[in-house]
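HUMAN:
Sorry, I am quite new to this. Are you able to go through these amino acid letters and fold codes? The numbers rather puzzle me.
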Amino acid sequence: MLSALRSQGGRPGLPRPLPRRLVLSVPAAVPRSGDGAGEQLPALRRPERRLPPPPADEVQPAWPTSPRRQRQRQPAAEQPVSGSIAGGGRLTAQLKAASSPEKVVQLVQQAEVGCSAADLTTAVNHLVKLYQRDHCIGDRCRAAFQQLAQIALSQQLDHWSVAQFFWAAGKLWEGVAVMQPFGDQQVAWQQRMTAAFAARECKPQSISNGLLGASKLGWRLEGSLAAAADAAVHRHATRMTSQHVCNTLWAFANAGWAPGSGASAALLQRLEQVLPQAQPQEVSNSLWAMPKLGLHPSDSLQAAFGQALQHVISSATSQNLANILLACGKLHWSPGGRILAAAVAAMQQLLAAGAVKAQHVCNFLWGLAELQEHLGIKLPAELPALLAAAAEWADCRWAQLSSLNVVDLCYNLARLGHRPGSTWVVSVTEREWGHQLQRSELEQLVPAAVDHICATWPEPGRGSGLRLAECLTRQTGFRAGPDCPAATAALECRLLPLVCADIDLIAADQLCPQIGKLPYLAGWAATLAAIGLRLPEQQLEAVCSYVGRHPQLQQGDRRYFEKAFRAWGCQPGLALLGQMENDI
């Protein structure tokens, strides 16, 4: 339904946020599509420079590789003590053999003082294994975790145990709308994390695992916790493996945290050293993190990435390839014609085998188109075959693809010069690419699109509604009002209440959208203002209050908020942004 609206992709009508640059020689971008080279663009009306829309789902790469504990035994003081049911390692063995979350909790409770910090760590890790075997018991695993977290507060946990509690929480609550694994003890656990990072004996893997979990839970990295994390990363970066470095970068980027300049420099320096040993997903995740963090790789780091990509492209998954080329497109950096050709060939093989997801194909093609448009490089000779394979793959699965996948695929194929056949979105494919929709067309498409979005709400990524609003800002002259009664009623009466409910959840720290809390709020504020809608006073106050609690506002988000506040005449919001600017 939305493909007609999305003829030119991008963050419709919104100013393109500038990547934050660190005073290092390294590139900047965010995860979306793949990468391309320079042939003549299709006969599209070339839009003004803009940021293409984020993927509808799976904006971020897969979870980094499962952390492995350092190969060293716990100190003797941390070994299990004989208890009511176990002595020595017997409790550990029983926990690993437990068949249910309830059994895990029962074993811990029966052990009483015989349950050590190491046993508690084993217990929460086993909950993750049980959950991975059967996602249907997710609620039971999460309830068991909360009981163990409460018990653990009476224990002296070392840095490893604290980190594993966070890592396990991130795994168990992944994709859950309301993430409160520690309940009303969140402050106590935050203090434990801060102390763990500050501990002299803290190890690199504890740092990366702890940050991974906190990142997945949508925690804010600020104050003493941020200072401890920065100091720990800076202190231990030289001892990090490729997995530690890449997972740490991924954690920062995924949560939208801004590492200090010292920590960033140390991580990038170490990344350059460990890339030769990195696995495909580690290369993919670390490159994906660069634009998200506003970093632009130095020449030497680009060379290291290029060499690493030569080794991993052939064994990369479709998601790895998509994230690699997505980052290249965001950074406007080409890894070289040979690597691009290998990536295109690898993706074509995966398409033929059916081992891809729609979002991966969209992201891959997006990156290729970005490189072609911005760098003018010649795309690989294998590209036409890939485009034909992508169109054929999608055509066989048309009924299975979401409306946003359809929009992205049509748009990116068109940018690369391949027009989908007539079976694609029958209602809109007859229109020329770049066509501005007529008011009568919008009156039909917008209500239908809103109905589709509302029927699947709440989707985990929370992207469809925002994408629709952004698409509408690209339609010249569209404004909610009496000229478009059906579209306005659909947006105002059916979609806006859902947005307001999301804002209330974010303000209460009960929701973390896939793109991040502040980018989500900023995106909605700017797009609603651009199409003539206004947030109710209650939600506007909640947005201002939330922004005021987060002084580390990124430049693009600040610009979006300012645009919305000016359009709405929100003086408190403008004053808040001004005060935050003065405090920097």
Observations:
- The two ends are 44 Å apart (CA to CA).
- Confidence is low (pLDDT under 50) at residues 1-63, 65-88, 425-434.
